[in-house]
Amino acid sequence: RKEVEQDPGPFNVPEGATVAFNCTYSNSASQSFFWYRQDCRKEPKLLMSVYSSGNEDGRFTAQLNRASQYISLLIRDSKLSDSATYLCAVGSGGYQKVTFGTGTKLQVIP
Amino acid sequence: NAGVMQNPRHLVRRRGQEARLRCSPMKGHSHVYWYRQLPEEGLKFMVYLQKENIIDESGMPKERFSAEFPKEGPSILRIQQVVRGDSAAYFCASSPPEAAKNIQYFGAGTRLSVL
Q1: A11, A37, B68, B94: which could join B25 in a potential S-S bond, CB 3.0 to 4.6 Å?
Q2: What are phi and psi of A15, to 5 degrees?
Q3: Chain A neighbors of B110, CB-CB under 8 A
Q4: Is A52 on the interface with B (CB under 8 A)?
Q5: Are the beta carbons of B103 and A34 separated by less than 8 Å?
Q6: pLDDT per residue as tens digits for the range A17-72
Q7: Between the CA of residue A85 and those of A33, A38, A93, B31, B83, what are the distances in Å?
């Protein structure tokens, strides 16, 4: 089993739709969780950290489910500009080594 | 406050040559990470360094690849005797000293093309 797994997609959704991605992780001792966004041929950019209580930033909501070992990202009212690959990242171990998932590709269509 | 700076942005090498990729972390960051990304694939961890120390090189190929982060100057990822399979985007990331805030900030990457 991979340390961090994501559905590669692509998820094709119409503008205005709500879309959710999940990311599962294998190390139950993981302590830090993140979502990054990566545009084509660009570097990953931090979208948000994921806290135990869940957190929201505008149209984006991240949740952590420790019991089932997954994190989720919900995007409401999708915009064309949301089209990108979304990477989850999980920190584990003594120095919280961060492992990235392979990413979920989102395409928002007009 | 400049972000993570990588150079060159693009690097073309012929098979057998050496490639040197440089990374200057964000100001105040003492942790540097190198990743490799092949087209349409995810980020593969290569190495984690702090100043003058390699902390984790579990993702580095055993041969031809090396990395350093000297006391002064940028971190360097060095690939000797490059082969076509080394063609990829190499990203550097940095994070602040506090382990609890290990959010990684990425540079724009170096795209290596081996002819």
Answers
A1: B94
A2: -50, 140
A3: none
A4: no
A5: yes
A6: 999 999 999 999 898 999 999 999 899 999 999 988 889 999 999 999 999 999 99
A7: 17, 5, 26, 25, 28
